[in-house]
Amino acid sequence: MADRLTQLQDALDNQMTLMYATINYIKTRHPYADIPGQPSQAPEPVALPVINGTTSQPTSNGHSSQPNGPARGTEAAPTNDEQATRTGSPRPEQPSTFNAALHELARDLVLQEQQIEILINSLPGLGSSEESQTRRMRELEAELRVVEEERLQAEKKREAMIKRLGDVLTRTQRVT
């Protein structure tokens, strides 16, 4: 039973970790949505530096593109990932990626919950009344007394056998 309880505790710990990770993912990676009639709350795009008189424009992959490449001796504009690393907050996911990740996280939470249910259902005592559990405990106590009496008799028999063996060994030593 202790093994089942340990498994149950581990499963509950895993469930809490999954829940925390899911909430953290939702909080940090959710895509921004426009609400009709409301001003946008999405963060403003990062201003890109001016190089050689032209402003670099980000491409769809987040890298800056410049008409003739970066000028020698200057750095390219930081990517969105680099900017997220600098600010400490990850950038939002694309809606399709975010929804797929949510689906996977939800599936993991449900599977973990089902594992917890199986462990709970395998615990002894569920589905039986208090009287039947008390009766079963009395039966087990009676069995334990019988087994303990058998153990004590076997212990006495072992001690007697050791004494007899010791007597045989001492007589054998005298003959030689």
From TrEMBL:
Q: Which keywords does this Swiss-Prot/TrEMBL entry list?
A: Activator, Coiled coil, Nucleus, Transcription, Transcription regulation
Q: Where is this region: Disordered?
A: 34-98
State the signal peptide span: none
Q: Where is the composition biased (Polar residues)?
A: 52-68, 80-98
**Pfam families associated with the record:** Med21 (PF11221)
> Per the record's keyword annotation, is Lipid metabolism included, yes or no?
no
**Gene3D superfamilies xrefs:** Mediator complex, subunit Med21
Which SUPFAM superfamilies does the entry mention? Answer: Mediator hinge subcomplex-like (SSF140718)
A GO molecular function term, named singly, is: transcription coregulator activity
Highest rank taxon of the organism: Eukaryota
An example GO biological process term is: regulation of transcription by RNA polymerase II
Q: Coiled-coil intervals in this record?
A: 130-164
Q: Which PANTHER family match?
A: MEDIATOR OF RNA POLYMERASE II TRANSCRIPTION SUBUNIT 21, RNA POLYMERASE II HOLOENZYME COMPONENT SRB7
Q: What does the record note on quaternary structure?
A: Component of the Mediator complex.
Q: Which family does it belong to?
A: Belongs to the Mediator complex subunit 21 family.
Record's function text? Component of the Mediator complex, a coactivator involved in the regulated transcription of nearly all RNA polymerase II-dependent genes. Mediator functions as a bridge to convey information from gene-specific regulatory proteins to the basal RNA polymerase II transcription machinery. Mediator is recruited to promoters by direct interactions with regulatory proteins and serves as a scaffold for the assembly of a functional preinitiation complex with RNA polymerase II and the general transcription factors.
Q: What is this protein called?
A: Mediator of RNA polymerase II transcription subunit 21
| Source species of the chain | Meristemomyces frigidus
